[in-house]
## 1
Amino acid sequence: MKITRKEFLSFSGKIILGAPILNSLFLKPSSALPLSETLNSGDVMIEVKIKRLNLVHTWTISRNSSDFKENVFVKLEKDGIVGYGEAAPNVRYGENAQLTVQRIHEAESIYHSTDFFHYMDIKEKLDNTILDQSCAKAALDIALMDWIGKAFGVPLYKLWGLNTSHAPVTSFSIGIDTPEVIKQKVKEAEPYPILKVKVGTKRDEEIIGAVRSVTDKPIRVDANEGWKSKEEALEKIQWLKTQGVEFIEQPLPSDMIEETAWLRERVDMPIIADEAVKTAADIPKLAGAYDGINIKLMKSGGLLEAWRMIQIAKALNLKIMLGCMIESSIAISAAAHLAPYVDWADLDGNLLISNDPFSGVKVNKGKFIYNDKPGLGVEGEF
Ligand code: MG
């Protein structure tokens, strides 16, 4: 019997699968995309899909380079209400799409045994169940908070008690490239008032020079752990200071906390931790070495942990940046709902892809445009 791809997807989306079958499915190579299963038990339904997000430009940072990303999407349904979530697996943290799908399914029973309104109980259970692939936790947490917002009939920013007019404008990221392409990217980024430029290479001067040859906008710089000694980082930051750079993100490898403290005493530029901080538990040891932290939902494991991180960072007088991976409008909108509570936003992941399957919080000249739909306020084809 021959079935069309559409029929196959529709069929595969309806079958109820047992764990052994799932395990074999998850180990399929990513070329078998898209992957889709529905687990239906009682009145809770969790659907998981991998989607390929194509990048407008090849995305290069000091660690690696890619033309597309495979993100994992979650649809959580109960009582006729649907919540959407997303995971953006990141190789830096040992994550991939197949393992992420597996972790989501391993945590699935929590949603069958816990009242959704006891979402803090669900967070604790998730923290005890998913010990790697924090992005899998993020997908489930985002989907649940979307569901909660919809159940209460309010946008998430209202649930948090936040004033959207306080949200900082988002920066727009410029990945590592040839000077000609960098100039082109900066021109394409014309609507965005602040740029974030990736460095951490042997040709940082050339990269910044290319940016500065076409714009005098404020720039923020991310070395992604690319400089390997405190002396090299000191020299680079002193030079960047002459180039109108506002702050530097993760100049040294994440484990070089003492060296970063040494650096901080010698430079007149805020130093922000990114790779050095994933969850709230990482924050206290960074106070003194860093001026601020970059919170990302994929590292924290979702919105509830990000909320906790914001509270702790504020208590320690650390600046707070809200960042992202390459993500669709689901995860970007989720983070944007927290943006009114932070100092800096770098939520441009959905602007770097050409086939965003969803729309939600939008951006105009760097400013977030929130809608008043409940939950994440996201729509699209799952
Ligand atoms: Mg970073």
## 2
Amino acid sequence: MAFPQPDNSYNGQAEVNDLIGMLAQRTGSAMDLNQRYLNRQLGRVLQTLGFDRDWVRGSGSYLIDSEGREYLDLYAGYGVFALGRGHPYVKAQLHALIDSDPPSLPQLGTSTLAGMLAERLIRCSPGRLDAVVLCSSGTEAVEAALKLARAATGRPRLLYCERGFHGLSYGSLSVNGNDEFRERFGLLLPGCDPVPFGDLDALERELRSGDVAGFIVEPVQGKGVYVAPDGYLAGAQKLCRGAGTMLIADEVQTGLGRSGRFLAVEHWGIEPDMITLSKALSGGFVPVGALLASRAVFDATFDSMENSVVHGSTFGGGDFAAGAALASLNVIEHDGLVERARSMGELLMGLTRPLVNRFEIVREVRGLGLMWGIELAPPSGRAARRVWEAIERRQPGLFAQLITVPLFHEHRILTQVAGHHMNVIKALPPLTIAEADLRRFAAALETVLEETESGLFRGYASLGFNLGRRALSAR
Ligand code: PLP
């Protein structure tokens, strides 16, 4: 059957119904459209910080604006672009897949690509995992984990860590350890309780009641970039096994090489009962998520023909998502990106850890692989401390923006604050990032820290004032 070609003369306007032409006609209108139809408050934040660039292209580790300026993107779409933007191999594979007209989402049918992806994920994962739920995002993978944990154990309670982040749909929100995300959205799922990250005694106390279905934990917490202390995850696994509780490792952010191992849990040699994946699996092209579980746990939920579709979602296991994921896994393997994340992470740490001794305002540099964070703290001198406090009174965590804003404006480097009300700056570079780019980031960071700290020491009360005033009025 012949399909109509784009009609470039439609309505007298050239290329009006060709997507790229339509886009070209609207260059420069992203913020205006956002403020009209999308998230106005986000627009205000971007304008306040001056991050409101008109992005027209993404390539590798860079975002490019309409004036052709290139920005090193260490935000990487919250970690989605682990392969960099527009990876040529994944792109070519997806072009070929689209052109092959695959039988995606037959729903009452099975899909070879979905099966191949599940097989591949299982092959890359620790021992006891041999079944997969495919979905389209991180939060969906977490929802699946929580539901399967309850069904497999017949127990009601779920434990999570303070500061933990697992997504923003209701199940995930119920195990979210950050109040700012939960306020105003109650009542959440009953039976969900927090424990301090790293505290095995607290975990043991909670598990003692014998009614805990699952304990969900990130090997490296995304909020604040806190790495699990040595012995914690192994201890948690032992306690969970003893209590008949499912240990769920949320590797949505840490998985697929970012930590310097394919899965971050490999650093501690543990074998969780379930693992969630998403973000990088997409190759930056097609949203995809996965929950890895044991066959026994999987079959406890999908336990009869009647219950064969008791959990799932319309887009889970689609051919384009599975194709993007398989192609991305090929790149990670072929290009040695796990090893690369480890060596580049060591380089970045080596370049930036000395900043703790160089600057009073640097409390700690921490991370694992290419998940990196720097925590800032008030200086000791009384006058400088007063300036810090004045800035923080305007908005807790505002000081960190005095680093991210000049990094962006003066050095064209995009970084993020690692959480609400915290002075931690975070970088999640593509695993493909050039060594020269990491060195440039480290040098730029040092320059900005130097300027900001000397501003503090000179008692520049104006430091951050405009930012603070605009941030307050943008609330
Ligand atoms: N789990 C972790 C560890 C995450 O970092 C995130 C997102 O940042 C999620 C789950 C939620 O993923 P999504 O935003 O795709 O729902």
